[in-house]
Amino acid sequence: MKLGNVTSAALIMALGATLGACNSNQPAPIETGFGPSPDLPKPTDKLLPTVNVATAKAWTGDSKPTPAAGLAVNQFAADLDHPRWLYQLPNGDVLVAETNGPPRPEDGDGIRGFFMKRVMKKAGAGVPSANRISLLRDADGDGIAETHTTYLSGLNSPFGMTLVGDTLYIADTDAIVTVPYVEGETTNTATPEQFFALPAGEINHHWTKNVVASPDGSKLYASVGSNSNVAENGIEAEEGRAAIWEIDIASREGRVFAKGLRNPVGMDIDPSTGTLFTVVNERDELGNNLVPDYLTSVKDGAFYGWPYSYYGQTVDTRVEPQDPDLVASAIAPDYALGSHTASLGLDLTSGSTGAMAAHFGEGAFIGQHGSWNRKPRSGYKVIFVPFANGMPSGDATTVLDDFMTDDTAHGRPVGVLLDQSGSLLVADDVGNRIWRVTSQ
């Protein structure tokens, strides 16, 4: 499956020509890839997959995304450097991880790697990582952060953050690190100390690592994406990956809590039930309509299919050798979020108060970063998935839209955060802004 170091000029030209092109299967309406029981069409497995990359060009002037009826949006913070993830401290300060991928010399070598680097550059993901966490403070409560400081620098592609007691845990690309936390400080001068190593290495294909704490503060849950699309680098390269880890804080011992999750990114825990939820980016190159990204509760010891199968026990025939026994144990996720939507951000309304939670009720806000390999494009918006009895149920609705006009992506939403004021903050890594959505 791996193309290796192919140097054929004809193949390079053919791959380049697929920018903006579409393979032969016609995309179904994006709505068919949503909900508890999505349609799963026959796969299209071709050497040249659909590539339909939107050119990244940040917002200008007073332009901004469009909120749904009954909502308003304003710029909470600007002049950031690829902001990806958000975390609010107990005193109301907001931390934002300004980050991008680390050096990965063996990730996607050969012609496919060359091509993917071009794709990511066009999509706005080719910038160096700022490797820092900034602090935003809205002391006067007007919905605009008047304080913007570098809180912590010198990190290694940081992403997830969580505070337990007076210790801040940060998920770098290769480890969870810690620094002491002092309330009110706008700058942290401590040197991060490694707490728990995470799978990384010279490939490190899905580099983002996230971390959340259990409600009682005794455990951490860390998400680690796969090292490939469908194990084309060999299953040995996937050791400890495509998984969510559980780490005991007192002993620093960790175990794989659930596996077969191709790229779990956003995580949140329902405080009323203790149930861990995650959004997962599924595999590519099976056509416009496969495979739906998804939102799911995460069961201890469960296997969710990757790489051998998807959406339960639908076998991916590209993967050899297969593992029939493992496929037989695969469980289907709870709710599909559309194919290639790159659903990344996640925040549950359970346990939250304020206007946005009241406006939408029980459910989950999800940031969809947007497709690079579907025509027409999917994602590029923030959505809300309603819950019933603690589980996703019903039709998703759009919260924030129009990040893209024509062939231009002015923004791409990533992390979403219900803040203490009851507003929804949205990290926009192409627009280099944080948007604030409120209920009118």
Give an account of the 3D structure.
The protein has a single domain, classed as TolB, C-terminal domain (Neuraminidase, 6 Propeller). The relative contact order is 0.17. The protein has four helices and 32 strands. It is globular, with a radius of gyration of 20 Å. Strands 3, 23, 24, 25, 26 and 27 form a six-stranded antiparallel β-sheet that branches. It is mainly β and 440 residues long. The longest helix has 13 residues.
The major sheet is characterized as: 6 strands, antiparallel
Sheet/helix structural class: mainly beta
Shape: globular
Q: Which spans of ≥5 residues are poorly predicted at pLDDT below 50?
A: 1-24
Total domain count: 1
CATH level 4 superfamily: TolB, C-terminal domain
CATH architecture: 6 Propeller
The CATH class turns out to be Mainly Beta
Distance between the termini: 52 Å
The amount of helix comes to under 10%
Strand content: 35-45%
The Cα radius of gyration reads 20 Å
Tally the beta strands. Answer: 32
Q: Report the total helices.
A: 4
The average pLDDT value, as a whole number, equals 91
CATH topology: Neuraminidase
What is the compact description of this entry?
The protein has 440 residues and is mostly beta strands. The protein has helices at residues 9-17, 110-122, 324-329, 355-360, and strands at residues 34-35, 55-56, 66-67, 71-77, 83-88, 94-98, 132-137, 147-152, 161-164, 167-171, 175-180, 193-197, 209-213, 219-224, 243-248, 254-259, 264-269, 276-280, 292-297, 309-310, 314-315, 335-339, 343-348, 363-368, 381-388, 391-392, 397-401, 404-405, 408-409, 413-418, 424-428, 433-439. Helices cover 8% and strands 35% of the residues.
